[in-house]
Amino acid sequence: MTKKITIGLTLLFFGIHIGVIHQATQAQIPTPVAPPTTKTICPAQLATSVNSIINRPLFSRVRWGILVQSLSSEQPLYSRDAQKYFTPASNTKLLTTAAALQQLGTNFRIRTSIYQDDNGILRVVGRGDPSLSDTQLQALAKQLKQQGITQISQLAVDDSYIQGDIVNPTWQWEDVQSDYGAPISSFILNENIFTFKLVPQAIGKPLQVIWTDPNEAKQWGIINQSMTVTQNSKPINVTRDLRGFLLRIQGQLAANSESYLVTLPVVDPNYYFLRRFRTVLATEKISLGQTLVVPGGNNQQEIAAVDSPPLSELVTETNVNSNNLYAEALLRALAFKQPNLHNKNTADIGLEVLKASLIKLGVDPTTYILVDGSGLSRRNLVSPEALVQTLQGMAKTPAASVYRASLPVAGKSGTLKNRFRNTPAEGIVQAKTGTLSGAVSLAGYINGTSYEPLVFSIMVNQSEQSASMLRQAIDEIVVLLTQLQRC
């Protein structure tokens, strides 16, 4: 049995403590919830009840942004700095996925193709499919084999579909060097991460490094300063230099402890794809000669292709599991139908399309400023008003049910699975979480039993309190909202 551990990799060999992190901007730690209650609240009492939570002394230095409205009304039931900007964290994904569904449609798929030119050279065209895995590579290899191809003298990858930085320049170092900040490009394979295990050995010996993919082992030099101990082990710490060639492993594991699974982002997505594809082709007994990266070319004879799942499924993975890589891929997918503009980043074009799409939904473009699609950047600025307008606007579209179904359900799924259990909110709240250092947010829909459907946005910024403490307060407010009734 293994534990997954995500490594913060920093400048040169400046190590940081490693914590267990999952795919959201940061892990959604199980939060204490309010006890079940049959209490009911009249709308006139809501302000007093909410204020009693956010005005507690421990929140005296915290910025709160809150907006609660009926799904079909623009009249607020509660508002607190709803027009002001906040760092939204992964609530940004609500805007990205709304625009993607509007612009591309629920059945849109991202295609990865292999073309053959007149000289017999094969060219793979990647278009940024975030779901591409070794399974799809196997499907491509089988298609080639079915066409009688047993030898490829030259294979080129065309990475020109997505232009610009493979990681957002505004992301922090620990994000860029962690699996939840993996690079985004035309080629995304296995979510552009790779893994290895650290396994305890005899006491006093370094931990054994066992690579999941032997090809990746050849890409790295390792300075192994770890140790197997009897007990009271020290946290594992893995750092790398800026060039991406050398790993330093430090820390201790007890001899009888479980192994650790270290997850790292790939350095060069193109060559990672080529290494994996060479291995997969070999399983089909297809020999591969020279490989190279050649942007552009003629897409004349497609001889193999795989498609991503429909956008409805990609959006669900994005929101339910707060998958940053999927969100960034969808942002770039927004640029697919736009003119190919030279010297302009695909992500920037995507942000322009996102804004135009949200305007059609009725979202005021002055209520937010985005620099990425996932919410990992601390430079994103979003108001509660923008999120509520997005939620209300999407409820009126043909994709309303798909959008809503993509959100975690309180106490049931995704990043809300461990929240709101045994409360009136369980099962009737569908909402998107968001967490960064000092910033916690939640926005979504409430189907109460005694009141009309609600939309809400709650954002907390500039807090020294723990994320779990902030989530507990947010959850108390949401539980109050589920107890509204007409009086």
Automatic annotation (TrEMBL):
Biological-process GO terms, alphabetical: peptidoglycan metabolic process; proteolysis
GO function terms (MF aspect): serine-type D-Ala-D-Ala carboxypeptidase activity
Keyword list, A-Z: Carboxypeptidase, Hydrolase, Protease
Record's keyword annotation contains Cell membrane: no
Entry's EC annotation: 3.4.16.4
Family membership: Belongs to the peptidase S13 family.
Protein name per Swiss-Prot or TrEMBL: D-alanyl-D-alanine carboxypeptidase/D-alanyl-D-alanine-endopeptidase
Organism this protein belongs to: Mojavia pulchra JT2-VF2
